[in-house]
Specification:
alpha+beta; 24 strands; FAD/NAD(P)-binding domain; 18 helices; D-Amino Acid Oxidase, Chain A, domain 2; 557 residues; 7-stranded mixed beta sheet; 8-stranded mixed beta sheet
Length: 557
């Protein structure tokens, strides 16, 4: 569509309003002031507000925050509680036992439990005070390049006011071309712009396949007297049931203030059973006697879902190209053994800011100059932290007990293990056909009655996520060939999209008279987790951004 578009020029543009971008923007403004460099900085976020798309397990190692804002408590950082002790529990189907020691990477005593939504909102306020131009409700839709296609020059935001057929409505607003000397991408796991850059500039060449987990998280209101009233530990992690040994993942329960808890469950997308239903597994987890005693008499206040990139060091892209840097979860910055990504993402953004300042000092923004980001990373303790988890997710993806041999070896060798550079299959390739996998694990959870209060169904979860999409717009979920969905994929895998999606976006409808099947997309339910873009066995689904300002509206998770 040829439209006259507004162009706005900045010196630096951050894409994404998560911890990496916000910490990077704050650090950049601090350094610019210190060095007396005049710099115009902008940040765009596809959510309606900063924090509205922020979802996390929310234990914060404050090391990066202390460096960035030493007086963060005095400045009103929204801390929920301080971790007073860790509890590591292995769940069997009907019982449990507490592991006598917590792995060193998961020692959280003294760290902070936070709401990532509140935390990123607060970081946004700090960034605004320092002069960052923040534009929530603007989704980056297209990467802009120079004439030779080798240099990133900015981002085009998505059009607003398009009808279902893609034609402009009366309230149509064309996207804006936001130009910058340096664009810093921090759009989170499986970023759509990062995927486009990868196709054009090959930033993942020679890298291992990314590994993903999808998590579902709730904030639950508990009565005044609850499990944590007398527990010495308020940071609980679980392994085992309902996932068993062959599917990576586990659960967590963190104490928040005002008798609230955050309950989360993650499962690795390397699973092979096409009948695996993430939401069912989450309900099984909540129904387990150990978890049920903690959340007894509770009420779900908010729910959300998100995909996490856990592949680590060997899956990281090239961190720099002409005119651009890559930070946060988009660039696989994650300490998977510690189950933490916030401080890692923040530090990546802060290092990127240092590299950008050097580029302005030299008035050069090509890849050679911006490679200073890589140099800073290589000299930083952040690299050591990433290296310790470099084979962790890959070991977890191994089937059977052999994974524990690999994990044990990694624990004592600071991440190297038996095989240094463990590769794994892409998550979209691991499903087995129905006959090979067996239709396992689907009946047990169906017996659970949803009470609408503590145990809620998917659609109630979508409602509590405050997810909103204007339905009269082009569908942002692109299914390249629906015939594959209703025929080949249905026959071979029985349409796994209807189970791996935590928002009930995908439905298969069958005509009772003709037996003909059709795919129905309820895209207004989309939680922006991007599981479909990752796990679809035919790579037939492409997730793109809807209009800016839409999607989840998290405030507590």
């Amino acid at each position: 569509m040829d439209q006259q578009r507004e162009r706005i020029d900045f010196d630096v543009l951050f894409v994404g309003g998560g911890p990496a971008s916000l910490a990077g923007a704050i650090k950049l403004m601090q350094l610019a002031k210190k060095k007396n460099i005049s710099i115009e900085v902008a940040l765009i976020e596809k959510g309606a507000e900063i924090g509205s798309h922020a979802l996390s397990g929310a234990v914060l190692n404050p090391i990066a925050l202390q460096e960035l804002i030493p007086d963060f408590i005095e400045k009103g950082c929204p801390v929920e509680t301080i971790v007073r002790g860790d509890e590591f529990v292995f769940l069997t189907k009907t019982g449990y036992f507490k592991v006598p020691f917590t792995p060193r990477q998961m020692h959280n005593k003294g760290f902070y439990i936070i709401s990532l939504s509140k935390f990123t909102k607060w970081l946004g306020e700090i960034a605004l005070e320092l002069g960052v131009n923040i534009f929530p409700g603007f989704a980056g839709k297209e990467v802009l390049y120079d004439d030779n296609g080798k240099t990133v020059t900015g981002v085009r935001t998505g059009d607003k006011g398009l009808g279902k057929d893609g034609s402009p409505k009366s309230n149509f607003e064309p996207g804006i071309d936001l130009m910058a000397k340096v664009t810093i991408f921090g759009e989170g796991a499986r970023g759509s712009l990062m995927q486009d850059i990868a196709k054009k500039l090959d930033i993942f060449s020679g890298k291992m396949s990314q590994v993903y987990e999808t998590g579902i998280k709730e904030v639950i209101q508990l009565p005044e007297k609850n499990y944590f009233s007398s527990s010495s530990a308020n940071d609980v992690h679980t392994l085992g049931y309902p996932l068993g040994f062959d599917t990576p993942g586990g659960g967590f329960i963190y104490e928040m203030k005002d008798n609230k808890v955050t309950v989360g469950f993650l499962a690795g997308l390397s699973y092979d059973d096409p009948m695996f239903d993430l939401y069912d597994e989450f309900i099984k987890f909540k129904s387990h006697p150990f978890v049920a005693q903690i959340i007894k008499d509770g009420k779900v206040l908010q729910q959300g879902a998100r995909t996490v990139s856990t592949g680590g060091y060997y899956t990281m892209p090239k961190l720099f190209v002409n005119g651009a840097l890559f930070t946060g979860a988009a660039a696989a910055f994650q300490n998977t053994p510690a189950l933490k990504g916030i401080h890692v993402s923040m530090k990546s953004g802060m290092l990127a800011a240092e590299a950008v300042i050097k580029a302005f000092e030299e008035n050069s923004f090509n890849a050679e100059t911006l490679s200073y980001f890589q140099t800073l990373f290589d000299k930083s303790p952040l690299k050591d932290e990433m290296l310790e988890g470099r084979n962790f997710s890959q070991a977890l993806a191994r089937k059977g007990l052999i994974k524990f041999v690999h994990l044990g070896a990694q624990y004592f060798t600071k991440g190297r293990g038996i095989i240094d550079g463990m590769n794994t299959e892409e998550d979209c390739t691991t499903l087995k056909p129905l006959k090979a996998a067996g239709e396992t694990g689907k009946a047990e959870t169906k017996k659970k009655t949803f009470d609408g209060t503590l145990y809620i169904d998917k659609l109630t979860g979508v409602y509590l996520s405050k997810t909103m999409h204007r339905e009269d717009q082009p569908c942002h979920i692109i299914v390249r060939d629906t015939d594959i969905c209703v025929n080949e994929c249905y026959e071979k895998f029985k349409s796994p999209c209807t189970r791996f999606c935590p928002g009930d976006v995908y439905e298969i409808e069958t005509d009772e008279k003709t037996g003909k099947r059709r795919l129905k997309l309820n895209f207004s339910n989309c939680l922006h987790c991007k599981t479909c873009d990752i796990k679809d066995p035919y790579r037939n689904i492409k997730w793109t951004c809807p209009e800016g300002g839409e999607g989840p509206g998290y405030t507590m998770v």
